[in-house]
Amino acid sequence: MRDxxxxxxHEITNCELCPRLREWCQSVAAKRRRxxxxxxxxxxxxxxxxxxxxxxxxxxxxxxxxxxxxxGRVFTGDASGDWLFRAMHxxxxxxxxxxxxxxxxxxxxNAWVSASVRCAPPDNKPTPAEIAACRPYFERELALxxxxxxxxxxx
Length: 155
Fold this sequence. Notes:
The model has no long low-confidence stretch (mean pLDDT 96). Strands 1-3-2-4 form a 4-stranded mixed β-sheet, with no helix packed on it. It has 5 helices and 4 strands; from the N terminus they run H-H-E-E-H-H-E-H-E. It is of the alpha/beta class. It is globular and about 40 Å long. It has one domain: Uracil-DNA Glycosylase, subunit E, CATH 3.40.470.10.
């Protein structure tokens, strides 16, 4: 069966390979930060997003506990995303300079954004085993990004 971004996204968002990370994400989603008490947290693994024909990949370590774990989109809803998407917009890779939630209208242009680990880890420190568990998702993502020319690793 041929791989696709929708299939990969489905598998990522339903992944349960790392019990420690799943428990942490769900715990953060249940407790919520005061500023987000009235928001429903995503609380699941976070897939990459962007232009499937992208030449540029921006890669982070893991979703933020109150950023992507809340919004469901990597680098969205936290300070790192504020900086990243403003810079990507200035360089012509993003349709708008902000990213506040999954359905805010942001489109990436010739760029894809992802993370090595798909769940927010405690203290932003995934274990080597957790990184290894997510690696097949990253490898599949790379294979699907057939026009990729450049990877910018952040962190």
